[in-house]
Structure formats: structure tokens, C-alpha cells
Amino acid sequence: MILEQPLEAPDHYPSLSSEKNISLKAVIGLSEEALDDAARRVFYALSLFPPKPNAFSEEAALAVGMTGPDILDLLVDVGLLEYHENARYTMHQTIADYAHLNGSDPDAIQRFVHYFVEYIQLNETAYTLLEREVPAIFAALEYAQQHHLSRYFCQGVCALTSFLQTHGRYDLAVSYLEHARSLLHPVQDAPFYAQVLQKLGSVQERRGEYQQAEQILLEGLQSARQIQDEYLVARILVSLALCLERRGAYEQIEHYLEEGLQLARDQDDSLLKSKLLTLQGQVFVRNGQYEQAEAIQQEGLKFARQSNDQEHIAGLLINVSAIQERREKYTEARISLQEARELANLAGNTEQLCLILSNLGSILTYLEQDAEAKKVLIEGKHLAERIENPMFQTGIIINLGSIALKQKAYQQAEQYFQEALNTATTIGHREMIAWIHHELGTLYLEQTDYINARCHLLLVQEQSTEPDALASSAYALAQIADRKTI
Questions:
Q1: pLDDT tens digits for 225-238?
Q2: CA 115 – CA 252 distance, rounded (Å)
């Protein structure tokens, strides 16, 4: 902090000669002298907010300062606080540093932490509102850690996880959740502990750490069962089924789905039913039962609309579009994705936007709009790189490779597929690996490289459980056998 920087005396201090150089510290001190004790305490409390260029709301300032608007006006008048816009304020870094010299008020810190933890909880899925307050939210969690406000920290982290996930802040989410986990006792804090494990497992699944996610979720499931929290059990079952689906362990999924659906029916929870039906639809997809899959996803969509959960509605529209694509209903799939894109944009859900752009690129390719498809996929690739989601990055790269393959740009296509294969192998996404081998097999087959084509197509037969992939690769292998015979 630099407080001894020479500065010309301001006009509103006539007692100081304009020809004298004074320090910033002296100028700020003169402003502070104009305050009574109550206003001074508010000044110190507001220095807890992240400084300019960050801004904070009047509501937050009043809560943290435990004051009224007149004191804020006074602080603005004496130059210690700046009115920003839209009833928001900001404090210069140097002024905040000066206030910090007077130490910290534990009560003000607790008010700051309490206000923002409650704010997160009230706006858990209102991502645009959370985005505006991110610097202060992060500051609140840091203060909670520093001042051993463990309960507030755990509450805030659990409520913030969804926002961090949708914005691709996986590493930060894991760091927060691991710290929360370390603060909790598995038995004495069992409800909180199980909730933290559910959140942590979900984030690890997003990062592609499927085995680690499964272990965490199983521990969370055991904890939730012990305290007989059926709502939490059902939520963990959803996360666990999704994790197993990602790594292709389909034989284990149905048991979890059946139990979860029964719990959702018992609780009459529309959103939970919708999420479980979504996963059940994925099982039908894997079995090639696309008509049943679309019907059950549409049923899930109905429940999601009843709950008015815009994020989940968008997610279901993405799933519906994927099934429509498999049924060659490309125009309908595009319409579903357009609605999903509007909802994801409104919510500021970066994760969903990545997936939407990836799927939209694929649909546009089928609609013979390759240039637009490539443009959409490149936009999605940049977005996926920003949030560091390996599964989304891989899906987009595969689609870019498929466009290159369609355009006979074999070298470029091979580069895309090899890059995708490396990532998919690292995260262990079984069906994605099979998909890439299928595309590589097709690429080599088109170049009459039958040896490499056969190797990749046989790997599809070994690894995939999807009827379409198995049938397509079997047909290609038969073509190779015929050509060798000829």
C-alpha cells in the first residue's frame, strides 16, 4: 500500500496551501475527521468489500455497515465512498487500505459473511445475479475461512457449487468443497457432510474424474442412508447414475434409477422425477429404443416445466434433441436446441451452452450447412476451453473431425480424432472412445487403408454398447471383408 504519495491539496480543504505537497494518508485522514464514531465504523466496515473497480449494492452496504442511507451519502460527500450507478457504490483501493490500518471489526466481518452466504442461498440458480456479486462472494468465503466461520463457509460453498459448475470453475469448486469436507465430522455433521460429498462427486464427474466421483458419491450415499435423509439419498442417486452413465457402466444404473424414482414419487418431487426420467431415457438410448427414449424424455420435460426450473428444462431439451437427431428428425432437433440455447443464455449457463453448440454443430452438418456448423463448433470449442470441461471439448473436436472427414480433408480429420481420443482415453469415457474409433475406422476405410480401418472398427465392437455404433461398425467390417475377398 502506498499512502505517502505526494498529492496536491484538494480545493475543499482551504486550510491547506495548494502549493504544499501532502500525502494521500493526510487527505484521507482529513475526510475521516469529518465523521462521527458511527459513520467511522460504517467506513471501516465498507472497506471489507473488494475495492474499485468492483462495486457493491446499497442493500449490501446497509446490511454490512448496519446503517442507513444518510451515512452512505455522508461518506460520498467527504470523498471516502463513490456512487457508482444503479444504486451501487465503490471504494478506492488506497482508501480501503487506509481503513484496514485500523484493524478489522469481527462483528462487521460476520455481517459481511452472513449477508453474502444468505444471498447465495436465495439466488442459487440466479446466475446473472451471482455473477454481479462474484468478487464480494469470494471475499465472504475467504473471510469465513480466515475467521473460522465454518458453518457459514460450508453453507455458502454448497449453495455456490451449481454456479461454479455451470461457469466451468471446477478446480475452485473442488478446492472449496474439499476444505468444507475437512471442516465437517462424518457423524456429528452427517447432514452437511453428505451434502458436501454429493456436490463434490458431481463436480468431479464434470471434470471427467469418474472413478473418484463414484467413490465420493458412494460414501455420501452411505452417510445419507444412515441419517435417513430420503431427499438427499435421491439426489445422490441421480449424481451416481449420471457418473456411471458417463463411464459406460450401464448394468449398474437401473437399480439406482428404480430406487431414485420410487423416492421421487414418495416425495412428489417433480424436478427429481424429471432428472431421473432423463437418465432412464439415456438407458433406452443405449438400448437403441429411441421412440421410448424420446417419450420418456418428453415426460421428464413435462415435469421440469411444472417445476419451472429453466436450467433443467434446457438440459432436457438438449437430451430430446440428441434423440431426435438419432431418429433423423433434424429440423425438430434444431428447434429443441434453439429453445435450449435461449434458456441457457438467459441463465448464463456456460456448461449448457458448450453442449448446445456441440450438438447444434452436428445437426447443422446433417442439414448440409457445413460452414455454419463449423462456425458454431469453433465458438463452442473456445467456450469449452475456457471452462476446462474435457468431455465437452472432446465432443466438439469429434464433430469438427466429422466435418473435415465429410469434406475429404483426411489429414485434418485424423488430427482432430487423435486429439479427441487422447482426452477421451484420459477421462475414461467408454462410449466417446468407441465413437472416435468408429470415426477413425470410417476415415481409414475411405482411404482404402483396410488394416487400420479394421483395427479401429474392431475396437468399436469391443467397447461400445450402442446398437447403432455396433451395427454401423459391423457393416463396415463386412465391407472390408468383401473387398479383401475381391
A1: 999 999 899 999 98
A2: 43
Report how far apart, in Å, the C-alpha atoms of 170 and of each of 201, 202, 237 are: 11, 10, 21
- Tell how strand 88-90 and strand 82-83 pair up: antiparallel
Q: What is the largest CA-CA distance in the chain?
A: 104
Which residue in the block uniquely carries the three cell numbers 480429420?
413
Can you tell me the distance from the alpha carbon of 341 to that of 357, in angstroms, rounded to the nearest whole number? 8
Q: What is 120-184 written as a DSSP string?
A: HHHTTT-HHHHHHTHHHHHHHHHHHHHTT-HHHHHHHHHHHHHHHHHTT-HHHHHHHHHHHHHHS
Q: What are phi and psi of 130, to 5 degrees?
A: -65, -40
Distance between CA atoms of 147 and 387, rounded to whole angstroms? Answer: 31
Distance CA 410, CA 418 (A): 12
pLDDT for the residue 22: 52
Tell me: the pLDDT tens digits for 466-476?
888 889 999 99
Q: In this structure, are residues 165 and 388 in contact, taking their beta carbons and an 8 Å threshold? A: no
Read off the C-alpha cell for 89: 457504490
What pLDDT band is residue 266 in, cutting at 50, 70 and 90?
confident
Place of cell 463414484: 214
**Residue from 207, 233, 235 nearest 221 by CA:** 233
Domain chopping of the chain, boundaries: 6-103, 429-486
C-alpha cell at 352: 449448457
Q: Could you tell me where the DSSP H helices lie in 407-449? A: 410-427, 430-446
d(CA 237, CA 92): 48
Least confident of 16-30, 187-201, 352-366: 16-30
> CA–CA separation, 192 vs 156, rounded Å?
12
Determine how β-strand 6-8 pairs with β-strand 82-83.
Answer: unpaired
| Pair 127, 163: CB distance under 8 Å | yes
Could you tell me what percent of the chain has a pLDDT over 70?
Answer: 95
Q: Which of 442-447's residues contact partners 24+ apart within 8 Å by CB, and which partners?
A: 442/405, 442/476, 443/405, 443/410, 443/413, 443/414, 443/417, 445/476, 445/479, 445/480, 446/405, 446/408, 446/410, 447/410
CATH class of the structural domain 6-103: mainly alpha
pLDDT tens digits, one per residue of 52-102: 999 999 999 999 999 999 999 999 998 899 998 888 999 999 999 988 888
The predicted model gives 171-193 an average pLDDT of 94
For the cut 60, the answer to whether the pLDDT of residue 14 exceeds it is no
Mean pLDDT for the stretch of residues 148-165: 95
Contacts of 70 (CB under 8 A, 6+ apart): none
Which amino acid appears at position 25 of this protein? K
Average the pLDDT over 169-190 and give the result: 94
Global confidence as pTM: 0.77
Residue 451: Cβ within 10 Å count = 8
